[in-house]
Amino acid sequence: MEKEFTIINPAGIHARPANAIMDKAITFTCRITLQKDAKTANAKSMVSLLKLGAKMGDTVTVITDGEDELEALAAVGEIIQSSID
């Protein structure tokens, strides 16, 4: 499954949002990938998420594959569209 989300956090995906995404992602068994332009990131790796360089207003595609992919897609998307400091 995949779905696009727009980042609304003024600071983009920096340390705290990346940590929140990772913490949520590791609770799921499926593979979760974030894609921005030609870059991809493993949602279960904070370093990988930070390397995306995602900023406010960017569109990120969340791709999930596995047993609990629907729940994972919704949970990670919710964090991306939040404004965690």
UniProtKB/TrEMBL annotation:
Which keywords does this chain's UniProt record carry?
Answer: Cytoplasm, Phosphotransferase system, Sugar transport, Transport
Q: Where in the cell is it found?
A: Cytoplasm
- Show where the HPr domain sits: 1-85
Where does this protein chiefly localize?
A: cytoplasm
Would you say which domain of life the source belongs to? Bacteria
Determine if Membrane is one of this entry's keywords.
no
Which SUPFAM superfamilies does the entry mention? HPr-like
**Record's GO cellular component, any one?**
cytoplasm
Listed under GO biological process in this entry are: phosphoenolpyruvate-dependent sugar phosphotransferase system
Summarizing the function annotation, the protein's role is: General (non sugar-specific) component of the phosphoenolpyruvate-dependent sugar phosphotransferase system (sugar PTS). This major carbohydrate active-transport system catalyzes the phosphorylation of incoming sugar substrates concomitantly with their translocation across the cell membrane. The phosphoryl group from phosphoenolpyruvate (PEP) is transferred to the phosphoryl carrier protein HPr by enzyme I. Phospho-HPr then transfers it to the PTS EIIA domain.
What this protein is called in its record is Phosphocarrier protein HPr
Highest classification ranks of the organism: Bacteria, Bacillati, Bacillota, Bacilli, Bacillales
